What we know:
Elements: H1 3-20, E1 40-41, E2 59-64, E3 84-86, E4 93-99, E5 105-112, E6 118-125, E7 145-147, E8 152-156, E9 161-166, E10 171-176, E11 200-202, E12 205-210, E13 222-227, E14 233-238, E15 258-260, E16 268-272, E17 278-281, E18 288-292, E19 320-322, E20 333-338, E21 354-358, E22 365-369, E23 384-386, E24 389-393, E25 398-403, E26 408-414, E27 425-427, E28 430-434, E29 439-444, E30 451-456, E31 466-468, E32 471-475, E33 479-484, E34 644-647, E35 652-654, E36 656-660, E37 669-673, E38 680-685, E39 694-700, E40 707-713, E41 716-723, E42 737-743, E43 753-759, E44 768-774, E45 809-810, E46 815-817, E47 832-838, E48 849-855, E49 860-862, E50 874-881, E51 884-885
Parallel strand pairs: 1-27
Antiparallel strand pairs: 2-33, 3-4, 4-5, 5-6, 7-8, 8-9, 9-10, 11-12, 12-13, 13-14, 15-16, 16-17, 17-18, 19-20, 20-21, 21-22, 23-24, 24-25, 25-26, 27-28, 28-29, 29-30, 31-32, 32-33, 34-44, 35-38, 36-37, 38-43, 39-42, 39-44, 40-41, 40-43, 45-46, 46-49, 47-48, 47-50, 50-51
Amino acid sequence: MSRRGISSFSTVLVLICLLAATAAQAGDWNQWRGPNRNGVSPETGLPSQWTPGTAGGNVVWQQSTFVFREAETSETSLDAGSPVVMGLGVDGKVFFMQSVESRRSSRMVALRESDGAFLWDHVTQVYGGDGFSVCRDNQGAATPYADAAEQRLYYGTKEGRLLSLDFDGNQLWQRLTQTGNQDPNAFGVNIHNCGNSTPIPYGDTMIYPLCPHFELPETTPYVVALDRDTGTTVWTREIDSFAGPLFQMLHGSWSQPVIATPPDGIDRMYMQLADGSLRCIDPATGAALWTHEDDSGFDRTRSGSGHPFGEGSEGVATPVYNPPGAFEVGSGAIYVSAGEDPSHPRETPIGTGRVWKINPMTGQKIWHYPSVNNDLGNVVGSVAISGYRMYVGDTAGFLHAVDIRTGQKLWREQLGGGDIWASPTVADGKIYIGTQDGDFYILRDSDTYEVLDVDNVGSRIASSVAVANQSIYIKSDRHIWKVSVLNADCADNDNDGFFGTENCPQGTDCDDDNPDVKPGEPEICDVVDNDCDGLIDEDFDGDGDGATFCSDPPDCNDADPAINPDAIEMCGNGIDEDCDGIDTCQCVDFDEDGYGTAGNTAGCPNSGVDCDDTDPNTYPGAVELCGDDIDQDCSGDALICASFRIEAEDMELENYLVRVNANFASESAYVAAAPTAGSASAEGEFRGQPGYYDVAVEYFDEFDGQSMLDVLIDGNLIGAMVFDQDLAGTAPNALNLTDQIVAIDEPVLAGSMVRMQATPTVLERAPVDRIAFIGGFPDVDGDGWQANEDCNDVNSLIYAAPSEVPGLVWSNKNVLLWRYPDDLGGSPLVGLFDVVRSDNPAEFFFALHCVEGDDSSDTLAIDPETPDEGVTWFYLVRAENPCGRGSLGRESSGVERSAGQCQ
């Protein structure tokens, strides 16, 4: 992989995170399951145990969900909505939904984040009579979306309202979903069993799904986009036009939409509606992109609700997008589960659940879990993914851990005896989840089942845990808690809401004896860090150099950042840079490596000029690392790494056998695991230049099975690889010799131990030819492509062969369309396309049918022939430009292929 490729991939991940966390501040948990709607948080320092109850220990506060409405609130309330957390301390707020009267009304509640004190609530009433909103046992399922920048909340209620409030509880607008005389512009959708969804922002709109009950007159589900400022309709999409054969299996939807941007840069919205199918929708227009229909075989005749239709689940769980990374290849994946509204009286036996892994760009299923031993119960919650581990709970009370690379189970354990409705939250190496019996579990995020803490809170837990401000927020039907890791020394001496020691819940008060000094306090000109941000009088610093006229000594020139009491005095220029009243000379050594900057080396311990006086590892004569574009020894040139390879047969082998074949193996040999080995390893010493490399494992991937290989350097895992491309043949040969490349961020040093640890299968013996450390190449013309990749490294407008041709789709039975490649290697763009066909993807190597050859006029091909009944044909497209020929892309099963020219 080139450095250019690494940079592009990182940019994609940043864009995905920025889109998902729109208008959320660092540390906020601004919507259901957090900023990315995936139940995963990067927060650290979180509790691994607690004791439910009032404040004390590491419980910062406990508050009743009935607060301020105890006399009006039904004791049968079953509120599944989760809390959101915005801001920190006395100015922060916690919001959640809570039912008030049985089947009649609900409210949005705001608490103060620092101590859980009640701030306000906003109550809405059912309109149009009892028949308008069927909401069993007063259950509320909504979680608001909070916009930190605009200070607004957006949410749907069980009574069929869509609302926007400001953070002080003032209503900005509302829309009704059901037909009624209160709003002639209502959408006409009867929300069933509180099946309301959490909205999601996109541009200037908020997008909501609306699902009716199959027995109600209005049987068409909708997706609507409303103006964020006014609530007026921007677009409406009726879903039945692409619902497929499962249409009318409607019951209500609790699924939340998710917006993501796969590596092709196109925004997509993923959601389930009440027929159980996963849909991919254009969030800008509502246009359908693809549908993955529910093939779980979920049998509704087992329920006690008298559904007239048989198979198919309901849209209960929310999809989760997992972007490409160390354990997620290709374009990432969508994970979504099958399940049914669990509020009906029924038996939901083991075997009713299903989780799919789906290609986010095509809707094609990658795998489903369970694939064998169908031991997953009905799934209500969504999955959470940590590294290569996926966690999901079922209503039989089991929590499952699954390897996302293979879809295989790691472990399955029952959490007490209660159903699991909540979705797991993963943070700081821990899993947080509650059950319907009120058991709250803290588990180790691990390949093995390990309970860190379990407590019973005395009432049902159906909501998911929020994580913010180094705290977790737990909500049951009766209470909500804020829990943190507290030091024994945590104390608030000045009673300003902030603690004077580190690792306390509200952050560190830099002066716990002065209530006017704390995080968030306005800065005044008094040579004190009033807001505890590590800066003093920064609002009064005219030139931004960290010194002010309030300082002691004061800044003698607050209009020039190069002049202040801490500046370095330059020699003989007649300027008093350090404000001491005189112009004197001295050694200027910012990084304290003994070498001074140009013109300021007098008196320095070492002779010579430091070429980078901000890095103590860079100076004349320093150790040079190759491949990092840094001139450590100040020689004038950065060192380029020379490639280095270790033959597998020359390594120290355990359960690996040397195989000799001079026809295709480098150095005439490779290694394969012994037939009876459960694992095999090869270890050797790196003897190349110290520096930064991409590491490639060159191996054979036959058409007969799967094996896995971990690559470690000095005991640190740098790549976990799966051999499952099924390239050609059932034995190593020239056609199935391939490689996988991983880029590492740390330098490889001379003498480092390189280890390959394989897990073979009976058919796939993890055959490895060698491991290569790929050296760097210069980029002469500065177009971002290295010389080994650039077909013309003196002209920045010409650089590389075309990238993969994406987006191969059928327009109708005989017309094939594809998307023009994003990158055809510079200007001028010349696109020559060949289209080939085969009824066997393995035959793309040697047996092709040419549909269309060398056509640069369009991105369309017409095949006059059609496949026989029950036969699948595979099509590929080749692109060519002045730099060469690009990949043929991927055939229908998602495996990358290559082939000869179309004849």
